[in-house]
Design brief:
Length: 124
């Protein structure tokens, strides 16, 4: 998870419930660095504990990981229904690597305004 996204999620949660501490699985091989950066991004409102393999150390992180993977799988299946099979959706999947750009371009094209509507809006 990227730092900015993690910080945004922490701040969103803190706006809804009182948080004292959050536990995160660090993507950084030096978890103290990730912890320090993330803590500075949330402005000291919440204590951040970042560790490698936190999902194996803390039940709450493990549960969140299961929920996130389940939601990710649901989204990948929806994208497959829309754009056809493209592998697992993981960047390391060789089947995925061949079609990722094509699927992304088709997705962008389906959300791109037409030339007529762009002209009507004054966009160039």
């Amino acid at each position: 998870m990227k730092r900015g996204i993690a910080a945004e999620l922490i701040l969103q949660a803190a706006s809804k419930v009182e948080l004292e501490v959050v536990y995160v699985d660090s993507p950084d091989p030096v978890p103290e660095r990730f912890e320090r950066i993330l803590a500075s991004m949330v402005g000291g409102e919440v204590k951040v504990v970042a560790e490698n393999s936190a999902d194996a150390k803390y039940a709450i992180v493990g549960a969140a990981s299961i929920i996130a993977k389940t939601e990710r799988d649901r989204i990948v299946e929806e994208l497959k229904r829309r754009y056809g099979d493209f592998g697992s959706g993981y960047p390391s999947d060789p089947e995925d690597k061949g079609v990722r750009g094509e699927v992304a371009e088709r997705a962008r094209a389906s959300h791109r305004p037409s030339l007529e509507s762009r002209g009507a809006l004054g966009a160039r």
